[in-house]
Write a structure and sequence with these properties.
Elements: E1 6-12, H1 16-27, E2 34-40, H2 45-55, E3 62-66, H3 74-84, E4 89-94, E5 97-99, H4 103-110, E6 115-118, E7 122-123, H5 126-131, H6 134-138, H7 145-150, H8 160-163, H9 166-175, E8 186-190, H10 191-196, H11 209-220, E9 223-226, E10 233-235, H12 245-260
Parallel strand pairs: 1-2, 1-4, 2-3, 6-9, 7-10
Antiparallel strand pairs: 4-8, 5-10, 6-8
Helix pairs in contact: 1-2, 11-12
């Protein structure tokens, strides 16, 4: 078997209905030389059974990296997933983001030494999220704006993400005011670069731990490229019970130190100092 050229890390926690839809999206990617690494922050056996069932029906490797449920410890499980990746290049996304069929192809074609890629997501309302089926994912209908608007999506400039061809997408990538930051739902970079900064800071829980990783990559000299209008994933709606202001404030303080001191390495990452 050919060694995978991309490792895709998908984070999840007890959300099998959404994860199953995401897995269907990866089953029909135009770029197929990848492995899927599921970063599972303590889900029950239901998630393990879903993954076992899915991997029987796909040709690419599926790796399930699991840890005990000790609250929101996404940074820790992502570091474990990074170590489990066998490819030199890593794409990161979430278990609530369905990739369009060219999602991995775009990341593969745009990858470049000395850079990481910054994508975005297209947020769906709950009504639309629930109606998306296996058939609509495999056929690609769930990425069709007209189909989505028939199922609860409202008109918006953001709909350009789904309708832009390659030329228009390239233009929008250039003129968007959004920073090309590391976004955990849609970003990619070289494994060696992520290891060089010691991965995610495990002190950080919800709120910006992905951005902080990107800021250390930049301090290392790694530049970023914007692909938010090219590499498309649709984000399924869900409640965020793990969101709390204390965690966000703590993370802001850590990011402030990273920026002011131009830190490249965290002693609270993959390797513990």
């Amino acid at each position: 078997m050919q060694a995978p050229e991309i490792s895709v890390i998908i984070s999840t926690y007890n959300a099998t209905a959404w994860l199953e839809k995401v897995l269907w999206g990866y089953s029909v990617q135009s770029f197929q030389n990848f492995e899927l690494v599921i970063a599972d922050d303590g889900s029950t056996e239901e998630t393990a059974q879903l993954i076992k069932s899915f991997e029987k029906n796909v040709s690419f490797p599926v790796v399930h990296v699991w840890q005990e449920d000790e609250g929101f410890q996404k940074s820790r499980i992502l570091n474990k997933a990074v170590l489990a990746c066998s490819a030199p290049y890593i794409v990161m996304s979430d278990g609530d983001c369905i990739p369009r069929k060219d999602f991995l192809e775009i990341h593969f074609l745009r990858k470049e030494q000395g850079y990481f890629l910054s994508g975005g997501y297209f947020m769906l309302p709950m009504e639309t999220s629930e109606i998306i089926s296996k058939e609509s994912i495999l056929s690609g209908k769930c990425f069709d704006v007209n189909w989505l608007m028939e199922h609860g999506l409202e008109k918006s400039f953001k709909n350009n993400k789904l309708t832009a061809g390659r030329t228009k997408a390239a233009l929008l990538n250039t003129i968007t005011p959004t920073n090309a930051s590391w976004n955990g739902h849609n970003a990619s970079g070289w494994k060696k670069d992520i290891l060089a900064i010691n991965g995610f800071d495990e002190r950080m829980q919800y709120g910006g731990q992905d951005r902080e990783l990107g800021e250390r990559l930049m301090n290392l000299g790694i530049k970023s490229k914007q692909i938010r209008y090219s590499a498309i994933c649709i984000h399924l709606d869900h409640p965020r019970g793990y969101k709390n202001e204390a965690s966000i404030e703590k993370n802001r303080a850590i990011r402030k130190t990273t920026k002011e001191e131009k830190r490249k390495w965290t002693p609270y990452g993959i390797t513990k100092d």
